[in-house]
Amino acid sequence: MKVLLVTLDSKFIHANLAVRYLKNFCENDGYNIEIKEFTINQQIDYILNEIFDFNPDIICFSCYIWNIQYVKEIAYIIKEANSSIKILCGGPEVSFETNKFMEESPYVDYVISGEGEITFKEFLTSFQSSYNKLNEIKGLSYRENQNIIINDKREPIDNLDVIKYPYDEDEKFKDKIIYYESSRGCPFSCSFCMSSIDKRTRNFSLERVKKDLSLLLKTNAKQIKFVDRTFNADYKRSMEIMEYIASNNINNMTIHFEITADIINDEFLKFLEKMPVNMFQFEIGVQSLNGDTLREINRHMSIDKLYYVISNIGKNNNIHMHLDLIAGLPYEDYETLKKSFNGIHQLNAEKIQLGFLKVLKGTKIYEERKKHEIKYRKTAPYEVICTKYISIKELLKLKKIEEIVDKYYNEKYFANCLNYVVNNFYSDSPFDFYEDFSEYWQRNNLFKVSHSRKKLYEIFYYYIKEINKLTCEFVDNMRYDYVFNNQYEELPGFLNREYEDNYKVIKRKLANDESFRSKYFKNAQKDDRIINNFRLVKIGEELVVFIFNNKNNIFERCKTYNVNHIIKGNENE
Length: 573
Prior knowledge:
Number of strands: 21
Number of helices: 21
Low-confidence stretches: none
CATH architecture of the largest domain: Alpha-Beta Horseshoe
Radius of gyration: 27 Å
Helix content: 25-40%
């Protein structure tokens, strides 16, 4: 019996966790199980060819909101081509309203709902013995004499350590994102989230987590992304895991956690001060600052505590923070969302992620969609169309604003000129800047095509010029941002290229000056060519040297120093 586990990831850099769990959980039982990992960006004909080349008896699809439409089409074609191949689907997208899914998808023979490891293993055992005990397998749904049979629900696994380490030690993960979990479930009951369905948190033992991490940290992955819904639910356990990572992260991988900020205490804050720069990322689900919305979605959050914690973490300049808002939640209209945005904008986090409500089966919001007149798209990812509180025009407007925030705020390539504009002209409402700027993009058809980073600077410059806010200070700040973030790109004309060109002769002298080299390039050898590792640019009345020797630090892409005193000495020569 040949079993094929198939997943379609959203991007090539992702490594699917679920199918690896299933394979490794059954590896000692003699089954011929293979994994084929694709992406939703690949041609369906290519995927079909790869699947049929394996000649499987059973094909098992891992189903999520980002791939379910592709899975349905591929499964349909497979069944039409060869009705003897059995199709099994599992994952969050088919774990709820299973009967409806199977009625609408007659080409699917079996569905596993909920946690799949034990159910999958029992299913393979039964399948191999001619379906003897399908009715006894909890968590399984199947067809029998044209009827759909839904078995009893399977309870979650108590001892997670029985689940084996998901990855093969010889797998190559260079430049990929590896998903990992140290716990399952969530202690909170956010009404929009599927994790709220399993209200009990279960942990892998710390011994097991450290053993797993010892292997993961030796890979060449780009990032390890913990999928724990609230990584810091047990803060002492979280500190022990982070301490272990910091001590063993030999390849300096980025580690991403989802945390709840307002439950962090001072002991944890003190601990975070000691963590390495640029190693950890925190994704913090704020969702809204509107009290009515927070109560309705079961978020019992202290906003004052949230501000206190985020501000304190931010002071250390060592942990990258992403703050999430969700548009389309109950009682959240355009104006209250604007207030929420302004509230978190002042915290100066590295990223503000404005998302849009997904109405997911099994959640409280799904059950109460009529109460709040939530209209949503009928195909995955079931995104909100409009609600009682916010119109489709307002949500579409927010999508444009979200794109501007992502291009100009989140990448930090415009930090100084953006802060200058917001602080001087939009200090009462930063949201208004992004709204106005998005309308400029709309008027000039700028959303229709992609733009280089250089073009984004130009667009910003001419927008500020159009609204009569173009000052010498703005140009100085943009010139600083441009050089700081673009080591090899020469200044464009609109930023006064001569502010760098006039100092090229002095720059060459400085590259060979012993006092300059010893002060700013301490580790450089005498014969090292350092001239390409710094730039000399006039910013306002100051001459600034930009040193590009720290590019891996997201908090400090390069270092800058006022060198007027050196320049005067060279000019006198």
